[in-house]
Each structure stands twice: as C-alpha cells, then as structure tokens.
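This part of the workshop introduces the protein records we will be handling. A learned vocabulary of local backbone shapes supplies the integers on the structure line. Getting from the letters to the tokens is the skill we practise here. As an example, a complete record with its sequence and its structure tokens follows.
=====
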Amino acid sequence: MDKKYQVFISSTFKDLHEERQKIISILLTADCIPAGMEAFVATDQEQFSVIKKVIDLCDYYILVLGNRYGSIDSNTGISYTEMEYNYAIEKGIPVLVFALDDEKRDQDEPEDKKVKLTAFKTKAMSNRLASMWKDSGDLQGKVALSIMHAKNEFNRPGWQRAKDYDELSLRQDIESLRSQLEATEKERDDYKKSLADYAAINTDLAFDNKETVTIPYVVYTPFEGARYTSAIFTWIELFKRISIEMANTSITEDYVYETLSSLVNDNTITDNVIAKVIMNQFEALKLIVTDYKNGQLLYSLTAKGKKLKNELNLIPKGTNI
C-alpha cells in the first residue's frame, strides 16, 4: 500500500523564498506532503507552539541555510529556525540539512547574527545527512536524492488513504483485539476473585487444631495377621501434609491416597472414600480447585491454599530442621 510522507521545510523566508518553492515542487514530485510553508513562519512563541505540533506530525525535516540567521526569540536568544531544528532533533525526526556553500554574508545582517549563523551552520553540518549547495539547481538535485535516500533508510509512519486498507483484515484485527480484551477482562475478574479468597484465609476456615479426622487402616504382622486400627489427625495436619505435595503442580486422587497412607506408616487404608471426603472439604473451603484432564481428576491449590500452605510449612528463623 502506497504511503505519502510529510516533510517539514525550515529556513529563513526573505532570502530563500524561491528555494523553498522549488523544494516544495521536488517533494510533491516525490509523493511527499510539504509542511512548514509560509503559513507557518514563526514570529512569536504562540505561533512556534503551532509549528511544533506540525513538526510532530512530520516524517522528515529539511533545514535549508542561506546567508541570514533569521528572527530571534527574545526568550531563548536564538532564531526560530534554529529552535525548529533543535525541536526536530529532540523528537528524533530524521533531519536533512542543506547549507549554502558561500562565504558571503548579507550586509544587512547585524554582526551578532552573523556570529550566530556561523555557529548554527557548524552545528547543523555535523548532522550525518548534511550537504552543501551552490545554487538553486544544485539544491533541487540534492534534495531529490536525499529525500529518496531518507525514505529507504528510515522507516517512518507516513500517511495513507483510509480506503487503501483491507476492510476484511481490519475487521479480523478488531475481532482479534476484542477477543484478547475479553480474555484479559476474564483474567482480571478471576484474579480479583482470587485476591478476595486470598485475603479471607484467616477469617473463614471451618476447622482448627481441635477438629479431627479419623483414618482407618489395617496393619499386617507375621504373627497376628490383619489388625484393624485407626489414626487421628487434625484438618490442619492433613492440609499441611497434602498441600506440600502440591507446591507448584496438580496431584491425582491416587497421589492423595498415597500421601494419606504415608501418614499411617504406609499401611493400607481401609476407607477408600476418605481421600475424596478430605479433598472435598478443602475444595469447599476454597483451598483447592479440581479439574479433569484425560479422564483423570486433578487437584490444585488456589491462591488462598498456597498462602495457608506457606503459613503452615515455613520454618521459623533460627529453627533447625
């Protein structure tokens, strides 16, 4: 899709009026949009503020220097042309400099302006995209070559007709962005809900160190054979043991059963439902969430569960394991 690039032309006006007109013609031929023409000549700070907004919208900046320094701003002590140049440099806009290769100085210029012009030229000519010109024809040729080179070297936004855009692609992009927004909003809502659960840990637990769970199991010995017994654990003890196995991963129901077996010295637990009952309690308290993958039930810690796991399992400073 074709783009047109906006180019700001900066120079003094009275001595370079003809050159400005020729540069405008060159830019129009190169499919560029000239800006900074006579309507934008700055004479005070208010007009200069308007010019800065125009420069902000430009893709390239052309500075043409002749034998005049131009009107000086009383606040900065430098010319508006130099202020425009400094602003373009500050904004990172590619700057093309063309300075007149002529040692003559306008006799009407005060001596202090001649000194300022010399300093300004020296500064501007240090720019990588700077060149000297001898006459209007030479300037035209160098501007034409420089703008083509700049367009190839610097990737700038440019301007493009709205109708040049592929409407179907734009609609697809909009729909994609809408889907991303909806997903982000859902993630945000889930996060807020998670934070609410996280903050409620110490206020809505339905068990404490006094409430217990009885786990029946069987012990096999060579002389006695099977001996049925049981062990009593608090809910806190159970969650502490099970949650440490779920640090950053999900566990299966079988893994919960194995963990409970380890609590009774790896003996066989006789109540096959006990693991479900325990995990259901933890889920009701929003300490864990369940999920099904490949036909298998999985348990994972919530933000609330992770915080409680850390509170129960962190070792106090100065304590040896």
User: Anything to note?
Assistant: The first helix runs from residue 17 to 29. Residues 45 and 75 are 9 Å apart (CA to CA). The mean pLDDT is 84.
